[in-house]
């Protein structure tokens, strides 16, 4: 690591550690915003594995987030499982569903994959709404206990802040290791040209499934944290629009870039808050900003710079060839 | 009972088909999913409401004016939000469409408020009985008008010169341009026609359910998109077939299996169809050349 990079990382670490001490002085609400940024960073980084690195256009990421949240909630409420066991368990369950969904759908390409994953997301949400015996339907599950550590209960926003910071860093680290390994190279080869990848011995199905499972696993972590943090889960938090929001974070930040995903989460969580004084116009402005961003900087704020080929690694239909 | 359910399913299926046509025409030419199409449908519905309530115009004029204005909106959206992105990655216009969708929803909320609004018309409440089937007036209107619109579109696409040019454009943008077709005009036309059909569907849904609200485009849009994919996205007859099929499946599933899970049933069918035949029922098979 160069000196400049070390200084930058050190400064970022210092800011992240000191941040709650400053924000607490301002307003508790800002702590909540920062925690939400943490949750959405995990979600956008995990979706980036599927979209940015593996090049699979998946639209139902909120489903895995929801599965994680409901699994953790049910485990903690009905089985009195500790948060520290419920969190990994929820992640494994979400990852398992990612694997389950991935198995049949990886044969599909592009928009078809998009619509099937969108359909899956809707099915999961409708099950949350309608399986009243287990999920209590639209009323949601209240009273999810907060995490405890050696008899100490996480009660304030500061504790949750450090917890989500740790989880986000863990996610960043693990995904970073995965995508910068041979596995990551295989994923990216697959993204650029599936036929080519196959010809040099990369099995597309294996790597696509891996991407789905890893993506869903980390979304499950975010979901479990959310359940414990808000202490209430309801189907409202896992709508199609939330999937879209996560997708927009990935693209706005820059696909196939982890810092980009974090940046995307920061922008899209902060923007509605900062535009709050415009009240009625803020969502309009946000929509407009997204369109303008796509026109003038489609690779996102922090995307790969070397990209020569398009998203699907092929010439678009109807043009050339 | 079964006949009645089939009638209801056909009614909602015709609506899905009308909206699905907008998705499919745009996809046929540009290969992008216009995710804002559901919100264009919503704008059409609100504009119809506006013309009838604020300007006190009769129903047929509301249909006509709303269709004209909405197609203008559709064309404008293509010009501003999609045309600059023609050469970009496929996902880029998609995100742009999501931006447009957000914009339209909040515009409608700003202009007309967030709550559900009823349609100010006595039309549609009368019912007629034919054997064991009860038709409401609005159901008859939906069935007849949708049929006329679809027939008109079919004749336009197959019999007129412009329609042929449009089909050529959807076969290959490049080759159509080489043959001297103004492809940009064809794209605008596809957006215009699709939006006008969506506006008609919007008004009919508004009267049918007697409710118009800013987020109504979401579920209708998803269902119509499902219909378009089911029938084979890019294919005009496919969208019509897919819409009617989806309407029937959803209504029958709702009536005989479970009301709460009727959307789950339609999504599950979509997923199964796509796994067996990814290009949809009437879609062309995608051949992947190296």
UniProtKB/TrEMBL annotation, chain A:
Alphabetized Pfam families for the sequence:
BPD_transp_2
Record keywords? Cell membrane, Membrane, Transmembrane, Transmembrane helix
GO molecular function per UniProt = branched-chain amino acid transmembrane transporter activity
Q: How does it sit in the membrane?
A: Multi-pass membrane protein
Q: Where in the cell is it found?
A: Cell membrane
Q: Which domain of life is it from?
A: Bacteria
Q: CDD domains per the record?
A: TM_PBP1_LivM_like
Q: Which residues cross the membrane?
A: 34-55, 62-79, 85-105, 112-132, 160-179, 209-232, 244-271, 283-302
A GO term from the CC aspect = plasma membrane
PANTHER family on file:
HIGH-AFFINITY BRANCHED-CHAIN AMINO ACID TRANSPORT PROTEIN BRAE, HIGH-AFFINITY BRANCHED-CHAIN AMINO ACID TRANSPORT SYSTEM PERMEASE
Q: What is this protein called?
A: Branched-chain amino acid ABC transporter permease
* Organism of this sequence: Paenibacillus woosongensis
**Lineage in the entry?**
Bacteria, Bacillati, Bacillota, Bacilli, Bacillales
From TrEMBL, chain B:
Topology relative to the lipid bilayer, per the entry, is: Multi-pass membrane protein
Q: How is this protein named in the record?
A: Branched-chain amino acid ABC transporter permease
Where is this chain's protein located in or outside the cell? Answer: Cell membrane
Q: Name one GO cellular component term.
A: plasma membrane
Instruction: Supply one GO molecular-function term.
Output: L-isoleucine transmembrane transporter activity
Span-the-membrane segments of this chain are 6-25, 57-79, 91-112, 132-157, 189-209, 264-283
- GO terms for biological process, alphabetical: D-alanine transmembrane transport; L-alanine transport; L-isoleucine import across plasma membrane
- Similarity comment text for this entry: Belongs to the binding-protein-dependent transport system permease family. LivHM subfamily.
The record's listing under Pfam families reads: BPD_transp_2
For this UniProt record, give its keywords in alphabetical order, as a comma-separated list: Amino-acid transport, Cell inner membrane, Cell membrane, Membrane, Transmembrane, Transmembrane helix, Transport
Where does this chain mainly localize? membrane
- The species this protein belongs to is Paenibacillus woosongensis
């Amino acid at each position: 690591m160069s000196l400049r990079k070390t200084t930058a990382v050190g400064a970022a670490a210092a800011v992240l550690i000191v941040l709650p001490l400053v924000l607490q002085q301002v307003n508790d609400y800002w702590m909540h915003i920062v925690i939400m940024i943490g949750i959405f960073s995990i979600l956008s980084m995990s979706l980036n594995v599927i979209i940015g690195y593996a090049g699979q256009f998946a639209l139902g990421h909120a489903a895995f987030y929801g599965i994680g949240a409901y699994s953790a909630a049910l485990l903690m409420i009905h089985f009195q499982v500790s948060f520290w066991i419920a969190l990994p368990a929820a992640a494994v369950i979400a990852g398992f569903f990612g694997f389950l969904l991935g198995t049949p759908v990886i044969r599909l390409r592009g928009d078809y994959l998009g619509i099937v994953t969108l359909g899956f997301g809707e099915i999961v949400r409708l099950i949350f709404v309608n399986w009243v015996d287990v999920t209590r339907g639209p009323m949601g599950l209240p009273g999810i206990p907060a995490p405890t550590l050696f008899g100490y209960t996480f009660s304030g926003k500061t504790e949750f802040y450090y917890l989500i910071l740790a989880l986000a860093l863990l996610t960043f680290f693990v995904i970073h290791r995965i995508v910068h390994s041979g596995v990551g190279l295989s994923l990216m080869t697959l993204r650029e040209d599936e036929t080519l990848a196959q010809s040099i011995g990369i099995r597309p199905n294996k790597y696509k499934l891996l991407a789905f499972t890893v993506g869903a696993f980390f979304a499950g972590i975010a979901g479990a944290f959310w359940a414990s943090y808000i202490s209430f889960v309801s189907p409202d938090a896992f709508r199609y629009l939330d999937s879209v929001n996560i997708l927009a974070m990935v693209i706005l930040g820059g696909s196939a870039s982890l810092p980009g995903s974090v940046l995307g989460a920061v922008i899209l969580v902060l923007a509605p808050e900062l535009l709050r004084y415009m009240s009625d116009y803020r969502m309009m402005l946000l929509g407009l900003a997204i369109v303008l961003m796509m026109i003038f900087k489609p690779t996102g704020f922090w995307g790969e710079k070397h990209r020569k080929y398009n998203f699907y690694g092929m010439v678009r239909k109807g043009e050339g060839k | 009972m079964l006949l009645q359910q089939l009638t209801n399913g056909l009614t909602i299926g015709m609506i899905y088909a009308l909206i699905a046509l907008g998705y499919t025409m745009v996809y046929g030419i540009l290969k992008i999913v216009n995710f804002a199409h559901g919100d264009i449908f919503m704008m059409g519905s609100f504009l119809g409401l506006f013309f009838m309530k604020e300007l006190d115009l009769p129903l047929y004029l509301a249909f006509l004016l709303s269709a004209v204005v909405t197609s203008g909106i559709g064309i404008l959206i293509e010009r501003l939000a999609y045309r600059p992105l023609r050469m970009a990655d496929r996902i880029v216009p998609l995100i742009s469409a999501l931006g447009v969708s957000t914009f339209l929803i909040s515009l409608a909320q700003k202009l007309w408020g967030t709550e559900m609004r009823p349609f100010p018309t006595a039309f549609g409440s009368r019912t007629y009985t034919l054997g064991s089937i009860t038709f409401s007036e609005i159901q008859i209107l939906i069935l007849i008008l949708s049929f006329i619109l679809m027939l008109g579109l079919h004749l336009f696409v197959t019999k007129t010169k412009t329609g042929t040019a449009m089909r050529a454009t959807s076969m290959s943008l490049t080759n159509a341009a080489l043959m001297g077709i103004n492809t940009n005009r064809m794209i605008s036309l596809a957006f215009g026609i699709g939006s006008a059909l969506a506006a008609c569907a919007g008004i009919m849904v508004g009267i049918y359910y007697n409710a118009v609200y800013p987020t109504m485009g979401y579920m209708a849009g998803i269902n119509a998109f499902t219909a378009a994919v089911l029938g084979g996205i890019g294919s005009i007859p496919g969208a019509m077939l897919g819409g009617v099929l989806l309407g029937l499946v959803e209504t029958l599933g709702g009536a005989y299996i479970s009301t709460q899970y009727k959307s789950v049933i339609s999504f599950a069918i979509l997923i199964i169809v796509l796994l067996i035949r990814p290009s949809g029922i009437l879609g062309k098979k995608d051949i992947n050349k190296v």
